[in-house]
Design a protein that fits this description.
single chain; 428 residues; D-Maltodextrin-Binding Protein, domain 2; 2 domains; four-stranded mixed sheet; globular
Amino acid sequence: MTRKLMRFTAVAAALAVASLSLSSCGSDNKDDGTTASGSDNEVEVFTWWASGSEKLGLDALVGVFNTQHPDIKFVNGAVAGGAGSAAKDLLQSRLQAKNPPDTFQAHAGAELTDYIAAGQIQDISDLYTEFKLTDVFPADLLSRLTVDGKIYSIPSNIHRANMVWANPAVLTEAGLDPTATYATIADWFPALDAVKATGKTPLSVATTWTQVNLLETVLLADLGADGYSGLWDGKTDWTSPEVTAALTDFQKLMSYTNTDRDGLDWPDATQQVIDGQAAFNVMGDWAVAAFEEAGKKPGTDFTYFPVPGTDGVFDFLADSFTLPVGAPHPNGAKAWLETVGSLEGQTAFNKAKGSIPARTDANPKDFSEYQQTAITSFGKDTIVSSLAHGAAAPIATLNAISDATSKFTTGASDLATYQSDLAAAVTK
């Protein structure tokens, strides 16, 4: 199975056809939320898990769903596109047309606030009681899911965004200790220089969202957990000298990256490390599944460590599922949400995807070496919310930061303009 995600431009026509088709089949709804035929024995699940380890995780979750709810048909509404960009565009069109899927994937946290404000998703706090999720989800996670006393999604997993993946053979070729980690971003630069001298790519990245992922980890490394979190609650000044210094480090890191980055998506950048073309890749821990799928062994074929300067901090994101207002098959959606929150569902899904369960009663021994370290870290580290993956800021803010980052990394703006653009994005 290929790890290369389909480009948005290649699927635009297909998305338009799919949207029209779905509109025609879901437009004749009754007031009780079921279809005109009265059928509620199916569920359309809208995600961006269309290939690679993400698709493997979805397939595993569907397998559990089919066992738990054999009378309900699963309809795969997956749309390809890095970090969900293509899926989110189509989803917004459907929601605005009052033609929602039965449930859709979203990142838990601030990303949901736009859907909540627009009245597009329902409060599902009662399902937490019905499914006994308040007993098995950590209190800190529940607080991050709660908006004005209500919960609007059920997370299927926990991911960590601030991880470095490395190729030991490339590091050894550069005269570096392949087991080394680095205390700060500044400490990392000499190693990147050593790799650059060999002609290999020191740090592989891909399209804009992966660059924003890198940006947030640099801000976290240089500002610390409190300073980073302050960027989103107004306590940290985006125009401060400390932010300038962090952006300078980001600019320098980008100078070590591959020149073809803007035409790639995250699996391509990770594949460069797997294939020995690049030394390091900053990517969320979904990357571990790509290494494992390629038959690579941790410690021998690849290593991993928190982004320099972020050890002891867990940069959190979670894929979660909602119950849209006007879902045509609400009972099917609730059945899917039950599976998503179940121990069996979370175990199967996360074993395939590389993330860790949101539930505290999962058995660590069921998971890989890396996942066991992540489970430990999530239990003891300081937790912060990811920017690039919807936990820290609303979609509009993230979009503005992404636009500013793209301008900066393609040379269309300088550092001072970039910092000003970032400050304006958060102010808006």
